[in-house]
Automatic annotation (TrEMBL):
InterPro entries: FAD-binding_MO, FAD/NAD-bd_sf. It comes from the Eukaryota. It comes from Hypocrea atroviridis (strain ATCC 20476 / IMI 206040) (Trichoderma atroviride). This is FAD/NAD(P)-binding domain-containing protein. The keyword DNA-binding does not apply. GO terms for molecular function: monooxygenase activity. It holds the Pfam family Pyr_redox_3. The keyword ATP-binding does not apply. Keywords: FAD, Flavoprotein, Monooxygenase, NADP, Oxidoreductase. Its cofactor is FAD.
Amino acid sequence: MKKGSPNHVYDVIIVGAGISGISAAHHIQKTLPDSEYLLLEGRDNIGGTWDLFRYPGIRSDTDLHTFGFGWQPWQENRAIADGDSIVHYLRTTAERDGIYRHIQFQHRIVAASWSSGLELWTLEVETKARRIQLHTKFLILGTGYYDYNEPLRAEIPGLSNNFRGTIVHPQFWPKDLDYTGKRVVIIGSGATAITLLPNLAKKASHVTMLQRSPTYIMSIDNTTGGSWIHKLLPRTWAFKLDRWMFMWMIIILYNFCRLFPERSRAALEGAVAKQLPKDVPMDPHFRPLYKPWDQRVCFTPNGDFFESLRGGKAHIETAHIKTMSSDSIILDNGKTLEADVIVTATGLKFCLGGHIRITIDDEEINLANRYAWNATMLQDVPNLAFMMGYVNASWTLGVETSSQLVCRLLQHMRKKHYSSVVPRLPKEFPMERRPIWDLDATYVKKAQGFIPRCGNIGPWRGRTNYFVDLWKTRYGSITKDLVFRAGRP
C-alpha cells in the first residue's frame, strides 16, 4: 500500500522522541534496515523530559556517559549536564543517525486498537490540523513513566486553602517567575530538590529545603575526559571507555551498598559531614532512616549543594508540616518558615503509555494491570513493547536492552513468518507479584497500581543489572512464554 494512503501499514511505529524512542529507532534501522518505521512525538521538539522540564538548573541525575547512547558517546568533559545540553545531544544524535527524518512532531496518539483478525494496530492520532488514522504491525511505547500533563499532587495541609504566595511544581515551571530577593521553600529531598537549592540560591534572598526525612547525597567530581586514556586514544574510543567505566562504577557502588549497608552508610555520611558548615548538624538532616539504595542516592556535582549551605543563603529543615498560613509553613516541631514561593518537589505522577486508550478487539485494557515479560512486553498484549529504564543505573541502559530485545524478536518473527506475538503467563507456576521498580520512594509506592508488575520466575523476573540483562537480551531464550501466530504475510 502506498505510503501516505489511509490503508498504509508501517512495520513499526514508535511513540515518543525522547531517549527511549531514539534508542528504539536506532536499533530498528540498524538490525532491520528494510523495515519501515515512524516515530510520533506529541510535542513540537525532540528530547522528552529534557525539553519539558524548565526549572532552574535542570540537569541529569545520572552521568551522561551512561545516560548517552553507546553508538554515539557523550563527548563533553563533564559527567552531569544541564537539560539544554542533553536536548542538543539528542537532536544531534538523531540527525547524524538518520532518525530525525522519521519523526512526525505534533502527532499525539489518542487511542490504539489491536485487531486479532487483521493482526494490526490502528492508531487514532491528533495532529495540529486534524485527526488521522495510522496502521502498524508492531507498536513501541517510548513515552517514559510519568504523566506529562499532570504532576503528582502534594498532600500538604493548608497549601491550597491558606497559603497566598506562589506555588510551583518543577514539572511546570513558569517562564515569567521572578524569585529574585524572595524567600523560597523547596518541599522535597530527592534529586530535583537537591538540584534546585543551589540554583535558586543564586537569586533568591534565602532558600530552605524542607524534608520529612533525609536522603543520601554524594558529591562527585564532575570533570571527565582528562585521564591518560584520553591522551593516548582517539576521542571517540576514549569516551566509549569512559562509558564502560561509569557502568561498572555504578554497579559496584550499588552492590557494595546492598551487601555492606552499614559500611556504606558510614562512608556516605562521613563524606557529607566533611562538607557541612558548623551550624548544620548531621542529625536529623543527613541521617536517612533507610539503607543506602533502598532509595536512589542523589548526586551533587562538585558538591554544589553543600557549597550553597556553606554560603549562608540556603538552609535545610527536617520536619513534618502541620499547616500553612498565608505566608508561612508551620511545622510540627513548632518552627515557622516564612515563604514567598513554595516549590513542591515531591515526585512525579506515574503514567504508562501517555494516556493512550488501548483496546484489544474492542475491549479496553489497563497496561499497568499486567505482568511484564523481560520488562519489555506485557502479559496478553500482542505486538506491543514498552521502554523502561533502571532505578539503580541510567534510564538509557534499560531502554538499550529493551530495544535490542525487541529487534531480536522482530528478526525471529520475520525469519519464521510470524505475524504476531503475545506473552502468556505459565499456567503451571503461581506467579508471585513483585514491583518492576524495587524502590522505597514515596512516589513509587503511590504508583504501584499504575505501573506493570514483575514476577519471580523465568522471563517475568525484573531486571538485575545491565550486563546480566544484556547477555539475556542477546543470548537468552526468545520464545519462552511467548505465543506466536503465523497469519497475514
